[in-house]
Amino acid sequence: MRILITSIVAAALVFAAGNQLGKPLTLKSQTPIAELSAKPAGFVGKTVQVKGKVSEVCENMGCWMRLVDPATKAAVKIKVKDGEIVFPKDSIGKMAVAEGKFAKIEMTKEQAIEQAKHEAEEKKKKFDPASVTGPVTTYQIQGTGAVIE
User: Class assignment of domain 20-104+137-148?
Assistant: First the structure.
């Protein structure tokens, strides 16, 4: 009986570890994505943990994913350094928990154009530089770890 229980526990740990990306999650509570969206300034520089449905994943290197709260439709981007974590492209539609430092990204108009152009190329869509009218401020989580459910 002990062998059976030990085997079940070991299998559960292997399964759970297979879903872990990057560093293990450390926070005990999650911040609602809608709360981050509503009051971003209050979270800048703080480590947060969020849960949501994966709506997008970087097509090129898996270096970011977007999580959406199914109830409120609020979204947040989880970005990691290239190669540090690779978010699986087949994660879209699955629930995920992610953790990292919440950051404010301020871009000049020129930087915003380059970023938007890069994102359009990733998605193989046309891009009109005139669609960027000025400096842009965005918020994202600089991810350290995630679990895809």
Answer: mainly beta
